[in-house]
Structures are given as C-alpha cells and as structure tokens.
Amino acid sequence: QVSKFLDTAGSKLDYRRYGEPLLDVLIAGGILAPGGVIVDDVDSSRPSRTDVCVFGAKLDHSSLKQYYGVLYKLIRRYKYMEKPLVEELRKLIMFLKGFSVEERHKLATVVGICLANSLGNPGCLDALFEEHLVKEGIALEFAIDLFKAWLVEKDMSNLGSALKRAGLETKLLDLLPFNKRSLENFENHFKAAGLDQIVDYQRVKASGEMRKLMQNKVRDMIKDDEPVKDIVNALLDDMRKNNLNEHDVVVMVWNVIMSVVEWNKKEELVADQALKHLRTYGPALLAPFATTPR
C-alpha cells in the first residue's frame, strides 16, 4: 500500500523538495531532529509519527526486506531519490546513539539488504568509524547485524568488493574500541555471531597489510644501505611475530631485491648490474630464510 501510494502520489507531489524528510518517515516513522529524535508537531491533532516504517516493523529479515522493497520501488520510479538515500543512510548511522537497541538492529538489517542489492553506496559505512560509535561498541554491534543481513542476500565476494570500493577493506579492526582492538578479539566477536566468513576475510586482509609493511621496511633499509645483518634480524623478528613460513619470506625478499633497483636501460650493462646487486643482497639476505628443502 505504501509503495502504491508513493508511486501515484509522486506525479502530484515533488519528492525532490523533501526527499530527506520522506526517507526519515519511511525508516524512522517521523521527521528526525539532529541526534535521532522524532520531531513532534506542536499541533497534537496533526500526526507526526507512524508505525508503518522500518522501526515499526517486526525484527526479522523477511519483514524488513519488505521495507527495502518500498525504497527500491520508490528509487526505481524516481531516480533522483538515489542521492538523498545515500545521504540519509550516512545520517542515520551518525544518529545511531539516539536510537533504541532494537531500532539499531532493524536499521542495520535494512541497510545490509539495501547495500547487498546495490541500493545506496557502501561509502556510507565510513560513518561507523566515528569515535563515539566505536567507543561504546555501537559500531561493532551494528556491523555484525549488517553483515549478517548482507550475507543472507549475497556472498562474501559481493561484500568484499563493496568494502573495497568504499576503501574499508583494511579498516574492519577499527570497529573495535581502541583498548580491545586486536585480531583475537575481532575473531571472537565475529565467530560468536556466526560470521566465520568475515573472520577469514579479515585474516587475509591483515596478512596482506602486514606483508606490505614488511616489504616497505626491507625496501627502506636497503635504500638506506643498512647492514644486511640488521635487515635479516628485522625480518626474522617479523616472521616470528606474524607466524610466516620461510618460503613466503624468500619470495617477498626476492621481489623487494628486484624492485629496489633502477635497472640500466642498456641491455648489455644489466647483467653486470644484476650480478653486483645480487652478490651484495642475494646469498646473505636469502640464505637465513632458505633452511628447508622447499
């Protein structure tokens, strides 16, 4: 009924003029003041809130998906509402502290369904990393509900691609309050929520970031002409800390050794340049990480 009304009323009403208040009503049930409180009309005889909204729905995926359907049909019919929706989702996430726990669960589910189906922009999720939301655990709780809803709709590769587009693929650990920010705590929270796919995703991303840091460190040490012994000690330390295999380190070190040099453009000079470079860094830097047959 809501979708049918919005579809026909749009020919008479100009949604461009009040896209944001309209979305406030569809999601929160009334027009929101800064902070997330619904504004009551001074005239008590005029309605200022409704239960026919996301916050008034049952707390289950299928019921909340019907409200995604309302938003989807509205935006499919009136494309200019797409931009207000992106701004609305960001604003609602900023207002999370002002909503009840149940309202936050419902909002997270609807946002997850919307983003999984490419309605809105995953960039709105960067609002989750606001200090006040992270500090009180609201960001983590919201992200868990959102990811659950997303993975009901689509697979992990879809979620991973969206996080990458939003530049958030390496920031998930920052959802935890600073004093609890560790990979172990992250894994405990998401495993307890049944989100093992998120745990695996975070491990891969954390490993990639850690390797990148190690490569940059070795590159800088070589450029600064630091003793090979110091470079080996730094690598051994990082290898132990991050539980890396020798053969992974060998490949990484080889790539750094090859990339740190500006190779001569004259082919006949490259061989001598390569030999000189490898005599300095090859055996001395690789041998400590080549103690196994592999």
List the helices and strands and how they pair.
Elements (H helix, E strand, L loop, with lengths): L1 H8 L9 H10 L32 H17 L4 H13 L6 H16 L14 H5 L2 H16 L2 H10 L17 H10 L3 H28 L4 H14 L4 H14 L7 H20 L8
Helix pairs in contact: 1-3, 2-4, 3-5, 5-7, 9-10, 10-11, 10-12, 11-13, 12-13
What does this structure look like?
By secondary structure, the protein is an all-alpha fold. It has helices spanning 2-9, 19-28, 61-77, 82-94, 101-116, 131-135, 138-153, 156-165, 183-192, 196-223, 228-241, 246-259, 267-286. Helix 10 crosses helix 12 (246-259) and helix 11 packs across helix 13. The longest helix is centred in the C-terminal third of the chain and has 28 residues, at 196-223. The termini are far apart. The model has no long low-confidence stretch (mean pLDDT 91).
Quick description:
The chain is mainly alpha-helical. 62% of the residues lie in helices and 0% in strands. Helix 1 (2-9) runs parallel beside helix 3 and helix 10 packs across helix 12.
Q: What share of residues are in beta strands?
A: under 5%
Q: Give the SSE order as H and E letters.
A: HHHHHHHHHHHHH
Low-confidence stretches: none
The level of helicity is 55-70%
What is the C-alpha radius of gyration, as a whole number of Å? 26 Å
List how many beta strands DSSP finds. Answer: 0
